[in-house]
Amino acid sequence: MLSLPFIRDNRAVVEKAIADKNVSLDLDALLALDGEVRGLKTEIDELRRQRNAISDSFKTADPAERPALGAKAKEMGAKTSEIEAVLADKQAALDALMLRLPGIPWEGAPVGPDESANTIVRQEGAIPSFDFEPRDHVALLEMNDWADLSRIVNVAGSRMYALKGRLAMLEQALMFWAQQQLAAEGFTTMTVPALARPQAFVATGHFPGHEEEAYAVPADDLYLAGTGEIALTSLHSGEILESDKLPILYAGYSPCFRREAGSAGRDVRGLLRVHQFYKLEQYVICEDDDAVSAEWHARLLANAEMLLKALEIPYQVIEASTGDMGLGKFRMNDIESWVPSLGKYRETHSCSTLHDWQARRANLRWRDGDRKVRFVHTLNNTALASPRILVPLLENHQQADGRVKLPKALQGLMGGEFL
Ligand SMILES: Nc1ncnc2c1ncn2[C@@H]1O[C@H](COS(=O)(=O)NC(=O)[C@@H](N)CO)[C@@H](O)[C@H]1O
């Protein structure tokens, strides 16, 4: 969300963000509502002032005049309530439009409608060349009995899987290993729930707009989150964080649930796109200073690259376009990992800076050195998301006989050179 003073003073910038992020929002209607709300508030204040004046005069008034004064006060009270009802409706309409406002993208973001406008920042790690016909991850799962992709569908429906044996253990080991790497970078590991109240989805920007992507639990007015970002964004809602508590660095581990409503037919084979997965989420709450945010964005990206380099997975860093980065983002860099069976890079990480766009929605504030209360900045990036990360991991390290050679970083954890 943006502040109304910012919108009033930066109309052209906001209009450009609305256009560049393909948002359908009538800024004139929003500002007209803002004007009406301010007018109604002024009217109410004036009525209250007059009513108070009458009440004050009541004590010293001639007894004969009191009935008329009482009637006047009563009439003003009725008028005030009438205007307050109108104000409530206008305020609700304004609040709804405010939630649709885009965050202003950084000036270096490629302007374009969707991911087709994304650009490649750089590529890291040599694409492996095999002296045998490489298998895809599903074939590797089958020949090593590392997953059940069929029976489980009878139990839980499509896009579901069960990992087995050493691969199931590797998934757990990977998450612990990543938590250790992030702890060394100062991030506090947290396990967070997937269940969350609707307001938590509004705070991150998932609602309004993406309700159909979340599984609902209507009996309890809860939804299942698709990312630990949702719990972490609202964890400190309503608090005023002292400056010595910033930055807050969380490594949030959670199950993630996504309906993938819009993904029919995409990635239907295997582990790339499933309804339930596990993610370790890097999350930062920092002071509202653009340079500080930019520094944390770079560090979140570097952390993810550190993990990919240790896993010896080739990848490329992507600069997201204005149309692909999402409503609230200032900047988004995806990392795409090489998948040999597809002969292309596929997204495994997504690093975002949101400035105070989420903080305003989540009511996340801090007290600066001058004791001034301000909204914070929030950032997030994937550390590891499994089972998707297993796809490049297994395929890039496969041997001719179908065994998978573990990267050195995991050999100690898994007690051997091979999975
Ligand atoms: N349906 C899915 N199945 C498997 N993995 C998924 C799915 N959706 C997302 N992921 C993984 O989760 C990562 C982060 O998802 S994201 O929506 O791009 N971004 C976020 O959730 C941010 N909070 C950063 O983690 C993706 O890069 C991908 O690796």
From TrEMBL:
<dbReference type="InterPro" id="IPR045864">
    <property type="entry name" value="aa-tRNA-synth_II/BPL/LPL"/>
</dbReference>
<keyword id="KW-0547">Nucleotide-binding</keyword>
<dbReference type="GO" id="GO:0005524">
    <property type="term" value="F:ATP binding"/>
</dbReference>
<dbReference type="InterPro" id="IPR002314">
    <property type="entry name" value="aa-tRNA-synt_IIb"/>
</dbReference>
<feature type="binding site">
    <location>
        <position position="258"/>
    </location>
    <ligand>
        <name>L-serine</name>
    </ligand>
</feature>
<feature type="site" description="Important for serine binding">
    <location>
        <position position="382"/>
    </location>
</feature>
<dbReference type="Pfam" id="PF02403">
    <property type="entry name" value="Seryl_tRNA_N"/>
</dbReference>
<feature type="binding site">
    <location>
        <position position="281"/>
    </location>
    <ligand>
        <name>L-serine</name>
    </ligand>
</feature>
<dbReference type="InterPro" id="IPR042103">
    <property type="entry name" value="SerRS_1_N_sf"/>
</dbReference>
<dbReference type="InterPro" id="IPR010978">
    <property type="entry name" value="tRNA-bd_arm"/>
</dbReference>
<dbReference type="InterPro" id="IPR006195">
    <property type="entry name" value="aa-tRNA-synth_II"/>
</dbReference>
<dbReference type="InterPro" id="IPR002317">
    <property type="entry name" value="Ser-tRNA-ligase_type_1"/>
</dbReference>
<keyword id="KW-0175">Coiled coil</keyword>
<keyword id="KW-0963">Cytoplasm</keyword>
<dbReference type="InterPro" id="IPR033729">
    <property type="entry name" value="SerRS_core"/>
</dbReference>
<keyword id="KW-0030">Aminoacyl-tRNA synthetase</keyword>
<feature type="binding site">
    <location>
        <position position="227"/>
    </location>
    <ligand>
        <name>L-serine</name>
    </ligand>
</feature>
<comment type="pathway">
    <text>Aminoacyl-tRNA biosynthesis; selenocysteinyl-tRNA(Sec) biosynthesis; L-seryl-tRNA(Sec) from L-serine and tRNA(Sec): step 1/1.</text>
</comment>
<keyword id="KW-0436">Ligase</keyword>
<feature type="coiled-coil region">
    <location>
        <begin position="30"/>
        <end position="57"/>
    </location>
</feature>
<feature type="binding site">
    <location>
        <begin position="347"/>
        <end position="350"/>
    </location>
    <ligand>
        <name>ATP</name>
    </ligand>
</feature>
<protein>
    <recommendedName>
        <fullName>Serine--tRNA ligase</fullName>
        <ecNumber>6.1.1.11</ecNumber>
    </recommendedName>
</protein>
<dbReference type="GO" id="GO:0006434">
    <property type="term" value="P:seryl-tRNA aminoacylation"/>
</dbReference>
<comment type="similarity">
    <text>Belongs to the class-II aminoacyl-tRNA synthetase family. Type-1 seryl-tRNA synthetase subfamily.</text>
</comment>
<dbReference type="GO" id="GO:0004828">
    <property type="term" value="F:serine-tRNA ligase activity"/>
</dbReference>
<feature type="binding site">
    <location>
        <position position="380"/>
    </location>
    <ligand>
        <name>L-serine</name>
    </ligand>
</feature>
<dbReference type="InterPro" id="IPR015866">
    <property type="entry name" value="Ser-tRNA-synth_1_N"/>
</dbReference>
<dbReference type="GO" id="GO:0005737">
    <property type="term" value="C:cytoplasm"/>
</dbReference>
<dbReference type="Pfam" id="PF00587">
    <property type="entry name" value="tRNA-synt_2b"/>
</dbReference>
<feature type="binding site">
    <location>
        <begin position="274"/>
        <end position="277"/>
    </location>
    <ligand>
        <name>ATP</name>
    </ligand>
</feature>
<keyword id="KW-0067">ATP-binding</keyword>
<feature type="binding site">
    <location>
        <begin position="258"/>
        <end position="260"/>
    </location>
    <ligand>
        <name>ATP</name>
    </ligand>
</feature>
<feature type="domain" description="Aminoacyl-transfer RNA synthetases class-II family profile">
    <location>
        <begin position="136"/>
        <end position="407"/>
    </location>
</feature>
<keyword id="KW-0648">Protein biosynthesis</keyword>
